[in-house]
Specification:
With about 270 residues, this protein is α/β, with parallel strands linked by helices. The chain contains nine helices and 14 strands. Strand 2 and strand 3 form a beta hairpin. The longest helix has 18 residues.
């Protein structure tokens, strides 16, 4: 039986004020009461798991190529996608198309993680879109109760009313297939999910998505980001990841850590 392989797909970069990612990164003082914002560049990516039983599983799917027409103007100014790398092009580099993907795991439904769900309408993966139940409930609720279709980083067109997409709500932590687990990492949103992959040669990889943005949040101590749904939940998630890291002697791969990302193997290289 073939081994599981993990490919990290570079989907470009977002830019933003660092205050969204870490509390008070550049605080004022008596002598400098109004320091300038710290404007940063952070990676966005998807993860392709080539699994001997489950097939090709994609974890997250990045920003929509239609982001300039789909995202509200305010969101574009706060989190611009300034180096655009379309998901379909990264799949093409691996000689794949959306039709070659068997399942899609979406860590949460923010625009930089769920923007290409519509690529999979009418495909096998489109019939197998795993999202945490709490995330589905919250994202659909906030984007359907008022006149505005977009709320915060939730862009309604990314995930709602897409023909041929079937969501499979995840209710609890556990294996989707041998050596491939999903775990709830709430805090950033109500239903962020991480992915844990156990590999024969590399050991265990824990992909936190925005459950933990970066090593700055991981600490210790935990540093709560500015963009947060539940601050206590975020701290509990950090501790949960620490326990998993210790349990499996795992490598933790954060959601938006530019320093770490520069040291990772990127597709077409892979972990096995």
């Amino acid at each position: 039986m073939s081994q599981t392989k993990v490919y990290i797909l570079d989907l470009g970069v977002l830019e933003c004020d660092e205050v969204w990612l870490a509390s008070a990164p550049n605080p004022g003082t008596l002598t400098n009461p109004n320091p300038p914002a710290n404007w940063v560049t952070v990676p966005t990516y998807a993860v392709l798991v080539d699994h001997p039983e489950m097939g090709r599983v994609l974890f997250d799917c990045g920003c929509s190529p239609q982001w300039k027409s789909r995202w509200p103007e305010g969101l574009q100014g706060v989190f611009p996608w300034t180096r655009e790398v379309p998901l379909v092009e990264k799949l093409k580099e691996l000689n794949l198309t959306p039709n070659d993907i068997d399942a899609l795991i979406v860590s949460h439904l923010h625009m930089d993680h769920a923007g290409n769900i519509d690529l999979f309408k009418g495909t096998k993966a489109g019939q197998n879109v795993y999202v945490h139940k709490k995330e589905l409930e919250y994202a659909f609720y906030v984007t359907h109760i008022g006149p505005e279709p977009n709320v915060g980083a939730y862009v309604k067109a990314d995930f709602s009313d897409i023909p041929g997409i079937v969501y499979k709500p995840v209710l609890e932590d556990g294996e989707l297939a041998r050596g491939l687990e999903v775990v709830a990492l709430p805090g950033h949103t109500p239903g962020v999910m991480g992915m844990v992959v156990h590999l024969e040669k590399e050991g265990t990889l824990i992909f936190t998505s925005d459950g933990v943005y970066s090593s700055k949040n991981y600490g210790p101590p935990a540093n709560i980001p500015g963009l947060i749904y539940d601050s206590l939940g975020f701290v509990n998630t950090v501790e949960k990841v620490r326990k998993l890291q210790k349990k499996y002697n795992a490598k933790v791969i954060f959601g938006h850590d530019p320093e770490q990302f520069s040291a990772l193997k990127l597709a077409p290289e892979f972990y096995e």
